[in-house]
Write a structure and sequence with these properties.
With 320 residues, the chain is α+β, with helices and mostly antiparallel strands. The chain has 2 domains: 133 residues, 60s Ribosomal Protein L30, Chain: A (2-Layer Sandwich); 149 residues, Alpha-Beta Complex (Phosphoribosyl-aminoimidazole Synthetase, Chain A, domain 2). It is built from 10 helices and 12 strands. A 6-stranded mixed beta sheet has the order 8-10-7-11-9-12, with helices on both faces. The protein has a 4-stranded mixed beta sheet with strand order 3-6-4-5. The chain has a two-stranded antiparallel ribbon with strand order 1-2. β1 and β2 form a beta hairpin. It is globular, with a radius of gyration of 20 Å. The chain binds adenosine-5'-triphosphate, thiamin phosphate (TPS) and magnesium ion. Thiamin phosphate binds next to loops. Keywords: ATP-binding, Kinase, Magnesium, Metal-binding, Nucleotide-binding, Thiamine biosynthesis, Transferase. Its EC number is 2.7.4.16. Belongs to the thiamine-monophosphate kinase family.
Length: 320
């Protein structure tokens, strides 16, 4: 019977060597993995963000390959740097796993991180590896402002156009499918395994003078709600302007779910949502609503077709 080599059989330091062996460093990196710290240059202010992925909470090993999880760990982190209008530079990864994890899983996870890092233009410069009860991944990403002000959540003003770029609803539709034991349509399942982050578009928005921006990790309404609250103004989303992808409609029909609920409240697509002065929305972005003056809507909330949305607005941890 074939046996699988586990990470406990390999041992901590040989495991680390096998995980970092194929990493390549970008030009800004002067010292990569191997010392007590990594060293790299940033242009302007450093922008830092961190995101944790926990097995059975953010992914299941029977739903996603190690490569998918590695790619997702990079994508969800770089997405926050995009949302700040900054440029990603470096990542560090905390990796915990049970001793019986196949060593190949750990190596393929790093191959996924490497592939997505190359797509996003960022280097994995270091990390930490420990034992733990389940696979847990904590990635910290460092970006640079490179001559532009960081884009915050509190800059929306009445009259702004609310616009999005990237996918909406696919990852949630994919989760619904995987949870029911299906593996197709492929596009939605792929989006749940790893989102298609619109790399570079955060910077495009910053150059266009975007007023406020966020990445859609929990759900469009929940995340736009953070902009509304931070800025102190309400927004109205016009559902007729939302693009509901054909595959999301198909999954909705098959499962008896209104696909609009995934587009409005499904998390994990890591699209970008932002507000712009009228007429300044960059090419490729879709205008889906507007920021309202206080006399039209006094509470800083997100309305849907002018009405209060009575259903879920997005994902929250710790819900029962
Ligand atoms: N344990 C913590 N300690 C300090 N700050 C935290 C902690 N958890 C969250 N924050 C901060 O609270 C804010 C909201 O956190 P959250 O994880 O919701 O970030 P997000 O960007 O909205 O989501 P995502 O990372 O999924 O895109 C962020 O500024 C984050 O840095
Ligand atoms: C096994 C499994 N169960 C549920 C989900 C759905 N899910 C988990 S976290 C999250 C929001 C973003 O998280 P965070 O706020 O931590 O960035 C969503 C929609 C999943 N992906 N896998
Ligand atoms: Mg975010």
């Amino acid at each position: 019977m074939a046996t699988t080599t586990t990470i406990s059989q390999v041992g901590e330091f040989p495991l680390i060597s096998s995980m970092v062996g194929d990493l390549t460093m970008g030009q800004a990196v002067t010292l990569g993995p191997g010392d007590d710290g990594a060293v790299f240059q940033v242009d302007g202010s450093a922008v830092v963000s961190t995101d944790v992925l926990v097995e059975e909470v953010h992914f299941r090993r029977r739903w996603s390959t190690a490569t998918d999880v590695g790619r997702k760990a990079v994508a969800v982190n770089v997405s926050d740097i995009e949302a700040m209008g900054a440029v990603p530079v470096a990542l560090v990864v905390g990796f915990s796993a049970p001793g019986d994890l196949p060593a190949s899983w750990a190596r393929e996870f790093m191959a996924g991180m490497t592939a997505e890092s190359q797509k996003a233009g960022v280097s994995v410069v270091g990390g930490d590896t420990t034992g733990g009860p389940v696979v847990s991944i904590a990635v910290t990403v460092i970006g640079q402002t490179a001559g532009m002000a960081p884009v915050r959540r509190d800059g929306a003003v009445p009259g702004d156009e609310v616009a999005v770029i990237g996918q909406l609803g696919l990852a949630a539709a994919g989760l619904a499918l995987l949870g029911r034991g299906f593996r197709s349509p492929r596009a939605v399942v792929a989006a749940q395994r790893c989102p298609e982050v619109p790399y570079g578009q955060g910077r495009v928005a910053a150059k266009a003078g975007v007023h406020a921006m966020i990445d859609v990790s929990d759900g469009l309404l929940a995340d736009l709600g953070h902009i509304a609250e931070a800025s102190g103004f309400a927004m109205d989303i016009d559902t007729a302007k939302l693009d509901i992808t054909e595959s999301v409609r198909t999954v909705g029909m098959a499962t008896g779910v209104d696909p609009l609920t995934w587009v409005l409240a499904g998390g994990e697509d890591h699209a970008l949502a932002a507000t712009f002065a009228p007429g300044t929305v960059p090419d490729g972005w879709t205008v889906v609503g507007r920021v309202l003056p206080p006399d039209e809507a006094p509470d800083p909330t997100v309305l849907v077709d002018g009405q209060v949305w009575q259903q879920e607005r997005g994902w929250t941890h710790f819900h029962s």
